[in-house]
Amino acid sequence: MATDNREVILKVRDLKVAFGSRRKRFEAVKGVSFDVYKGETFGIVGESGSGKTTIGRSIIRVYPASGGSIKFNDKEITGRISKELDREITNKIQMIFQDPMASLNERAKIDYIVSEGLQGRGFSKKEIAEKVNQALNDVGLLPEFASRFPHEFSGGQRQRIGIARALVMNPEFIIADEPISALDVSIRAQVLNLMSQLQRERGLTYLFISHDLSVMRFICDRIAVIHKGLIVEMAETETLFQHPLHPYTRALLSAIPQPNPIAEKNKVLEVYDPSCHHYENDPPVWTEIEPGHHVLANQEELTMYREKIK
Amino acid sequence: MTNPILSVRDLHVKFRLRGRVLHALRGIDLDVLEGESLAIVGESGCGKSVLNKNFIGLLDQNGFIERGSIKYFGMADKMRNHPAAGEDDLGRPYIDLAQFDDNEDWLRIRGSEVCMIPQDPMTSLNPLKTIGWQISEALELHRGMTGEMAYDEVIRILEDVRIDDPERRYNQYPHELSGGMRQRIVIAIAIACQPKILICDEPTTALDVTIQAQVLTLLKDLKAKYNLTIIFITHDLGVVANIADRVAVMYAGDIIELGTVEDIFFDARHPYTWALLSSLPQLGHRGEELYSIKGTPPNLFKEIKGDAFAARNPHALKIDHLQQPPYFDVSPTHKARTWLLDPRAPKVDPPEALKKIKDIGGVSYGD
Question: Which ipTM was obtained for this model?
Answer without folding.
Answer: 0.80
